[in-house]
Write a structure and sequence with these properties.
alpha/beta, 31% helix, single chain, 7-stranded mixed beta sheet, Rossmann fold
Amino acid sequence: MTADRPPLAEGIPDRLYGRRRGHPLRPRQQKLLDVTLPRLRLADAEAADPLAAFGMPGAPLWLEVGFGGGEHALAQVEAHPGVAYIASEVFENGLCSLLTRLVPEGEEADAPLPRNLRLWPRDARHLVSALPEGALDRLFLMFPDPWPKARHAKRRFVNPALLPAVARAIRPGGEWRIASDDPTYQGWVEEVMAGADGFERLSRDETRPEGWPGTRYEAKALREGRTPFYWVFRRR
């Protein structure tokens, strides 16, 4: 982000993640980042009027924070062509996973791309702070890194210090959907959101509700015997 990016709330660390890259990128992956990603990137200046960037005035705006492999994001984009969807991910390997699903090899520069998808390859908290008040109709946080150690709790996106910014960005009546299979994070969500005056809990399910596309992280959790929780919170 630029030097004039919106400041983060006091008590929030400079970033919520470690490395941006896991294993070394293959040539195809690097080309996707160099050639295709710029075609989908939501520019910093566009955050103040995101629907203009989509060319979809009046459309609902949804944001997914940390899309991982991209399964959930792409399923939502396909199922809801009238929704403007911003998918945020800082990890290069996750970005490559999503872009690989979208673009056939050799067509990185000119393959058709979904009109209703934009990518934010940076810290989503800065985007949340830059969006107009009440811009979001729906926010997704699907199987985030649990940061299980107590000293790392401040790195979690569900965070008391960040809640005012999140509440400002979601319109009254809008939804925040959260999924986690980690018992520590599940307890953390219950504790933090119980004290969140700006939100009310609509539901908490232990079976994925209809309309929630699956992810690789959910599949791994089920294979390993963990029970995911799926919450819906509504902005008051």
